[in-house]
Amino acid sequence: MPQLNTPLRPIALLLLGLSSFAHAAEADSDADTELSAITVTANQSPSQVGTDKIHVRQADSIRDVLRDIPGVYVGGTNNMNQQIQVRGVGESGLNISIDGARQLGTIFHHNGRTLIDADLLKRVNVDVGSHSVTSGMGALGGAVQFTTVSATDMLQDGAAFGGKVKSSYATNNNQWQNSVMLYGKPVDSLDVLGYVNYKSMNLGESGDGRPLGGDGKEVDYLVKAGWQITPNQKITVSAERNDLSGLYPARLEFPHNDLPGSQYVPLIHQTYQRDTQTLGYEYAPGNDWIDLSAKIYRSKTMLDNGKDHARFVNNQWLNWLAKLEIETVGATLKNTSHFDTGRANHALNIGYEFYDTDNSKTDARTGQYSQGESGRLHSLYVEDKIAVGNFSLTPGLRYDHYTLENPSTGEKTYDRYSKALEAAYQFDSGFKAYVAYADLFRAPDTMNAMFLSYANNTNLNDLQPETGHTSEIGLSYNRSGLLGDDELNLQTKLFRSDYDNIIAVSGPQNRLSRKNIGSGRIDGFEASAQYRYQNLRANVGFSKSDIDLYDIDPANKEPGNNTAIGRNMGAKWNLSLAYDWTGTGISAQWDSVFQRRYTSHNVEKPGYGVSDISVHWKPQSGSLKGLKTSFGVYNVFDKFYVSQSARQQSLQVPIPDYEMGRNVKATVAYRF
Predict the structure, then answer these.
(1) What number of other Cβ atoms are within 10 A of residue 604's Cβ?
(2) How far is CA 640 from CA 5, 76, 206, 255, 643, in A?
(3) Alpha helices of 464-594 — where are they, by DSSP H?
(4) pLDDT tens-digit profile of 446-480?
(5) Separation in Å, CA 639 to CA 204, 318, 607, 661
(6) How far apart are alpha carbons 245 and 111 in whole angstroms?
(7) Which residues form the TonB-dependent receptor plug domain (predicted)?
(8) pLDDT digit string, tens, across residues 92-112
(9) Domain assignment of residue 544, yes or no
(10) CA angle, corner 536, sides to 530 and 541, nearest 5?
(11) Strands (E), 107-207
(12) Which parts of 73-164 fold into alpha helices (H)?
C-alpha cells in the first residue's frame, strides 16, 4: 500500500469543497426530516443501535451498524467476507433478508452472504434468538431483516423533490466514496427514489502495518417507487444492485500471502454481485381485521474468482477457481387482525412464505458446468398475541414443507410443525418480565456452490434436518424522569438453545459430503443499559455464550468451523458515550468494544479492546442547513488484533484475518 505522508490533506480538501458547495445554496431547506433510529428488536426487550448510527460511525459496512448489539458479532475486513454471527450461530443458521428477499445458500464458505450498502438502511430488525414462528424456517440463531429507504422516508414535509449528495474519505485504505440520491413525487400518488454510490479503495493496514482487505471498487444502485393506487392500497417496486470487484485474497477469510502449499493465498481478480428485484402490495382498508401485505422477489448472487485461473493452472491448491451463482425467487403474504374476546385483546398474525432457490458452478479452468441443488419451501404460520391487562401470551404454530433436489441422488422432502410460546408481564413500576420457548427446525440448505463439482453426491436419505429448541427468560426496566430530564432503559436475558443433527461438510477435497455430526448446546447471558441525562447519552452492553458440541470427532479442535453452530468467543463489552451541544448542531461520541480472552475447548483467542472517537456538525439554520459533516478516528490506539468471530483467530498462526489499524475518516453530506 502506498504510504500516505499527509493523510489529512484529502480530508481537508473534501470538507472545504463540499462545505463551499453547501454555502452556495441560496434557499433554506424546510425542516429536516430525519430517518428514525435503526431499530433492533430483541424479543420482549427491544433496543436501538443508536440514533443516526450510520452517520456517527461513517459506516461503510454492516459491521459498523450492528457491532453494539449484545450477542451479535460481524467479522471480516472487507465487504466481500463480512459475516454475521448471533449467539454463536453463523449465517447459514440465520434467516437474512433484504427488503423481504431471502438471502439463501452459501456461495463460498470464505465469503459472507450479506451484500448491502449501509447508506441505504432505514431499519434493521435483529431477532437475537428465535422465539417467534414469524422468523421463518431455518432461524437456528435468529433473523436479520434489512429494510432500505424510500422516497417517502427522505422527502421533507411538503416537498415534492429532494436529494442528497455525500462524499467521504478514509486514510487507512485510501478509500473514497461518493454518492448521489434523488427522490420526489412527480404526482401526489407516486413517489420515486434513485441512488448510485461509487467507492474505491486500496489495501488497508493492520495495527502493525500488515496489508489486509482488498484493492478494488464498489458500485451500488437502488431504484424504488411507490404508487398509492387508492387511499387504502399501495404498490411498491424496487431494483437494487451491489457490485464489488478488484484484487482480493483468493480465500477471503485470510490475508493474502506467499506461503507455500495449501496456505498460499494470493491476490486475485474477483467480482461479487447481488441483484434483487421486489414487487410489493399493501392493503389496509381501515378496519381492524385486514392489514395485508404481499411481496414477490428475485435475488441473484454471483461470485467470479476465476479471471486469473491461467496464472495458477499448475497449482494444485488453486484449481478450484470458478464462477458461482445462487438464484432465489420467492413470495410472502401476511395479514394482521386486531379484535377482542371479552377482556382479551388479540393481535392475530397469519402468513405464508414460498421460495425456490438453486445454485450452479462453472469451472474456470475446464469450462465445466455443474448443475447445483434446488430447495423449495412452502411455509404457513399463525401467531396470536393475547393481552389481558398487563399480561400477554403469544402462542404460535408454523408448518414447513421443504424439498431438496440433487441432480445426482434425487430429492427428499422434509415436513415439520414448530411451536412457540411467549408470556410477558408489564409492571406499573416500569419492569417487564418475559419467558419464551420455541422449536427450532432447519432443513438442509443447498450445497455450498464452490463444492458442486466434487461434492454433490450426498445421499439425501442419510441427511436429517437440524432440529432443537430454545428457551429464554428476560427482565427489562424503562423509566424516565428519575433525575429530571432523563431516561433509563435496562435489559437482561438468560438463554439456552439445544441442537440435534448438526450438519457439517467434511472429507477429502474430492470426496466432500454433508453429514449429521451430533448435537450441541449454547448457553448465554446478555445485558444492556442505556441512559440519557439531558444532552448526555451512555450505553453499556455485555454478552457471553458458551458452546458445547457433543458426539463429534475429538481430533477436530474446533468442529464449529464447518457448521452453522459452534464458533466460540469470549465475553464482549460495549461502551458508548455521546454529548450534544444545544443550539450548535455539534455532537461528539466515544465507542469502545472489549473482547475478553477466550480459552476453552482446546482453542485460545486473545482478547482486545478497540475504541473510536468522532465529532459531528449539523447546522441548525441558515444557508448551511442540510449539511452534515463528520470527522472520526477509528481504532484510536492502532490496536493490532484479530476478531474473535474470524475463522482464524490466533496471532501465532501464519494466516489470521487481521483487523484494520487506525483509520481516520471524514464525511460531508448535503441534503436539499
Answers:
(1) 12
(2) 21, 15, 6, 14, 10
(3) none
(4) 989 998 877 656 778 888 999 999 999 999 999 99
(5) 14, 33, 11, 6
(6) 14
(7) 43-143
(8) 899 999 999 999 999 998 888
(9) yes
(10) 25
(11) 121-128, 142-148, 161-170, 175-187, 190-201, 204-205
(12) 151-154
Q: How many domains does the chain have?
A: 1
Gap between the Cα atoms of 433 and 490, Å rounded: 12
User: ∠ CA 36-38-41 to the nearest 5 degrees?
Assistant: 115
Q: If you average pLDDT over every residue of the chain, what do you get?
A: 86
Q: Could you identify the residue written with the cell 441473484?
A: 300
Instruction: Look up residue 103 and give its three cell numbers.
Output: 438471502
- Indicate the DSSP class of residue 45: S
Length of the chain counted residue by residue = 672
The answer to whether residue 515 is domain-embedded is no
Residue range(s) defining the domain that contains residue 441: 9-507+524-556+571-671
- By C-alpha distance, which of 671, 668, 654, 662 is closest to 256? 654
Which residue's entry shows cell 469450462?
367
Cβ proximity of 495 and 524 under 8 Å: yes
What cell does 210 get?
500488515
Q: Is residue 513 part of a domain?
A: no
Asked whether the beta carbons of 250 and 305 are under 8 A apart, the reply is yes
What secondary structure does DSSP assign to 458-477, as a single string?
--GGG-PPEEEEEEEEEEEE
Residue 149 maps to a domain: yes
Domain CATH number, residue 303: 2.40.170.20
Task: Characterise 232 by phi-psi region: left (phi > 0), alpha (psi -120 to 50), beta (else).
Answer: alpha
Detail the DSSP E strand segments found in 427-465. Answer: 431-442
Q: Which residue matches cell numbers 414477490?
A: 296
In the structure, what pLDDT confidence band is assigned to residue 551 with cuts at 50, 70 and 90?
Answer: low
**How many angstroms separate the CA atoms of 250 and 286, rounded?**
55
CA–CA–CA angle 79, 88, 127 (5° rounding): 80
pTM of the model: 0.90
Q: What is the DSSP letter of 28?
A: P
